[in-house]
Design goal:
257 residues, alpha+beta, 5-stranded mixed barrel, 4-stranded mixed β-sheet, 8 helices, elongated
Length: 257
């Protein structure tokens, strides 16, 4: 006997063909986090659930579990939003794939599912609406995702003297903190594991890490500082999660930074 039907809202972040016309989709939902849903006949263009179960489509899903599988089975699906412009740009698509791979890797606390889903959807909006550059979207997603899942860096001030402003800081990847240039002159090796972080980048990182999500998308950063931010956020992800992502490797062949 099937379990009680559940209604979840989320975006498709992965799909795997299982049989000639069936597939399993991975959906990041606000109710349950990451779930895998079996879609019978989902590969067929004429399938009634085809549109709702495509990659990067936000849908409402009615699902159930059987006694024979840990997968959810799809009972109903309704499209809520399609990010049409993603497929028009290979940079957008490759970034969306990397973001999805990160979501599958990170252990998101249950009480943060809705917040992370909102983050993901907002980044896709900022990207496809061309309000932020591809690299800024990538960096904000990386740092905010880690910040909200237990890896928020201490950006308040220098970890040693607590200075709030300085011409130059260094971002300590392993210890998730910043150190001002004066304190770094104490003999510590800042070549390995420490990244130059100029004041505008420090301010951007503070905003990304601490601002309310509703307000976070109101800032911007001059292009000259975006690459510095990109390097810091990417290295931060690679250090605290895993050291390689296939989708990131592909993204880096498409976007030069």
């Amino acid at each position: 006997m099937n379990e009680q039907l559940k209604t979840v809202n989320g975006i498709v972040i992965k799909e795997i063909k299982t049989k000639e016309s069936d597939k399993v989709i991975t959906v990041f939902t606000k109710e349950l986090g990451v779930v895998n849903i079996y879609v019978k006949g989902g590969m067929r263009l004429k399938n009634k659930f085809h549109s709702a179960t495509n990659m990067f489509v936000l849908s409402e899903f009615v699902v159930f579990k059987s006694n024979k599988s840990e997968l959810y089975n799809l009972n109903e699906a309704t499209v809520k939003h399609i990010f049409h412009r993603l497929s028009d740009n290979i940079e957008y698509m490759s970034l969306a794939m990397y973001m999805s791979e990160l979501l599958c890797e990170i252990d998101v606390p249950n009480d943060m599912n809705n917040e992370i889903l909102r983050l993901y959807l907002n980044i896709l909006h900022m990207l496809t609406a061309k309000k932020w550059s591809v690299l800024l979207c990538k960096s904000v997603f990386e740092m905010r995702l880690l910040s909200d899942t237990g890896f928020r860096p201490d950006m308040i001030g220098c970890a040693r003297c607590r200075k709030y402003e300085a011409e130059l800081f260094f971002f300590d990847i392993s210890n998730a903190r910043i150190i001002c240039s004066k304190c770094m002159m104490g003999g510590e090796n800042y070549i390995t594991g420490y990244f130059v972080c100029e004041m505008p980048v420090v301010m951007a990182l503070r905003y990304i890490a601490y601002a309310d999500l509703d307000q976070m998308f109101t800032f911007n950063l001059e292009s000259g500082y975006v690459k510095q931010l990109t390097r810091i956020c990417e290295e931060y992800v690679l250090y605290h999660t895993k050291n390689e992502y296939k989708a990131l490797n592909f993204f880096k062949t498409i976007v030069n930074y």
